[in-house]
Amino acid sequence: MKQAFYALCYLHKNRICHRDIKPENFLLYREDDDSHIKLIDFGLAKRVIPNEIMNKPNGTPYYIAPEVLKGSYTTQCDVWSMGVIMFIMLCGKPPFGGKQNKDIINNVLNSTYSMKSEVWNSVSDDAKDLISKLLQRSADVRLTAQEAFDHPWIQQERDKENNLVELNPDMITNIQHYMNQAKLRQTTLTYIATRIPESQITDLRAAFTKFDKNGDGQLTHQELKEGI
């Protein structure tokens, strides 16, 4: 969920609504690496302007937000879908079920979910709190992707992982060298960097995510300064 919200923060900061968040659209980076996931399938994604209201119904019944079914929604619909995914991952079934699509849709619109079954006894209060704030029927009350990424349940894991990251001292020298390059060379290096195999940038990715405090996929001057 930490990685999923990290990806969603990046999309929403860049004004992109995915509109089809579901487990099938998260893939493992490699078959032998279950610690790194990718968000895929932007067939229904849409670039939006700030506070743009969308009305075209999109999504998959189990994960679709109620406001999408009502025909008036924002990027907050993606956050609802994340809540459904998290619910399923913790208890093994969706919060709003049904035998047919129309039953599922009716339950999304009219039913309330429950976290009272025995399986929830082993789930932390922080996790339940996050779910309850993701599955708010009012999109205005629901957490944003950024707020979800900043939630204690996510941040505890982020802090734990960051404590395990060791940064190479040469990295600072490399950054300084890079910043001194001509604009054309910077552009060229950026082009090359986006095509480096993932296996060669594991340490760099770990450093980047550790520096990127707000999870927007970009480093501000302050984040870089604090990180170094």
Keywords:
single chain; 228 residues; Transferase(Phosphotransferase), domain 1; two-stranded antiparallel ribbon; 11 helices; 7% strand
Structure at a glance:
The protein is mainly alpha-helical. Helix content is 46%, strand content 7%. The strands form two sheets. Strands 1-4 form a two-stranded antiparallel sheet.
What would the average pLDDT be, to the nearest integer? 87
Question: What count of domains describes the coordinates?
Answer: 2
* Discrete helix count: 11
Beta fraction: 5-15%
Radius of gyration: 20 Å
The CATH topology name of the largest domain reads Transferase(Phosphotransferase), domain 1
Give an overview in words:
- The protein has 228 residues and is mainly alpha-helical.
- It has 2 domains: 2-144, Transferase(Phosphotransferase) domain 1 (Transferase(Phosphotransferase), domain 1), CATH 1.10.510; 165-227, no CATH class.
- The chain contains 11 helices and 4 strands.
- Helix 3 packs antiparallel against helix 5 (125-134).
- It is globular.
- It starts with a helix and ends with a helix.
- The mean pLDDT is 87.
Write the layout of secondary structure elements.
Elements: H1 2-13, E1 16-17, E2 26-30, E3 33-39, E4 46-47, H2 66-69, H3 76-91, H4 101-110, H5 125-134, H6 145-149, H7 152-162, H8 170-179, H9 183-193, H10 202-211, H11 221-227
Antiparallel strand pairs: 1-4, 2-3
Helix pairs in contact: 3-5
